[in-house]
Structures are given as C-alpha cells and as structure tokens.
C-alpha cells in the first residue's frame, strides 16, 4: 500500500486570479481569527481560488519586536466563485471559514474591480504596496493643493522637500497627491 503524496500549496499572485470561468465573481468570506492561512490552504485543496490581501504588521511581545505578513482585513478573505457551477455551500464548511458574506440565501458579490485592484497592488512578496513606486529620495510632482505642479524630492512617504527661495521646505502630503517623475 502506498502512502498518499503530500501536497504543497504556495500562495502566489498568479494563482490568485480566478480561473474558473467568465461568470466567476469575487465573494467575501468571514474566517476565524488568525485562521486566514489555514482557510486559504483548505480552500485551495478543494479547488477554490482564495485571495487574502496582506500587509506587514509589527508585533511587540516580551521585549521583542517582529515584523511579519498579516491579513489587511483580519477575519476576512476573498474567494472567486461561479455560484451557478460551483458547490459554493462547501465553503461554509471549510476548516477555518465561518461563512460566506450572504444576502438572504445567496452569497453577496464584492463590487467589481475591488479585488482585482488589490491583486494589482500586490507585490512579488505577496504584500500590498500602496506607494505606487515612490521611494525616499525620488523626484515627485505634486498633483493638488497649494503646491500643485511643483517638483520636489520625497523625504518620507508623507513628506516632500519643495525647493522654494534657495532652500528646501518640508511639506507634509498624502502620497496619493504625488506622482513619481523620471
């Protein structure tokens, strides 16, 4: 008698795009606290396509500081489903999953484009990157506000050094108001 092969599941961005058909939509599922990875693994083993947006989280415990990936929406994940073809009720019985977010008797789809945008913002490391390619020291153009269309140098993601009157003045800005220039 042979032993069953051990299946390894890797969460890569390429696997997280829905591959079930044109009618597939993204749905949100509530998961038990801290069980996002367990739920993701079990859903993949069943043939579903889950996606968990992740970010870096700093954790302090017993005089140690550790940075590790964590769910951007703790307790929730997204699953690509075609409710007409797939057995979506089995998601509710998956280890780690509480239930799909429902509207009456049917799962409630996430607004179109939302999860796709999160996937587009996910870097190679599997973490969300909202900086839009901005890095400290980069030249940026300010898009709005009293300094609109001025060029500056990015000091931090929330501060730009703008050249005014033979000096650099620090200006606090939201990174959404900036665009990197070459």
UniProtKB/TrEMBL annotation:
Supply the SMART domains for this chain.
NGN
Using the record's annotation, list all stretches that form the NusG-like N-terminal domain: 23-122
UniProt xrefs under Pfam families: NusG
Listed CDD domains: KOW_NusG (cd06091)
Q: A single GO BP annotation from the record?
A: DNA-templated transcription elongation
Source organism superkingdom: Bacteria
> Which keywords label this protein?
Transcription, Transcription antitermination, Transcription regulation
InterPro entries registered for this protein in UniProt: NGN-like_dom, NGN_dom_sf, NusG-like
The protein's name in its UniProt record:
Antitermination factor NusG
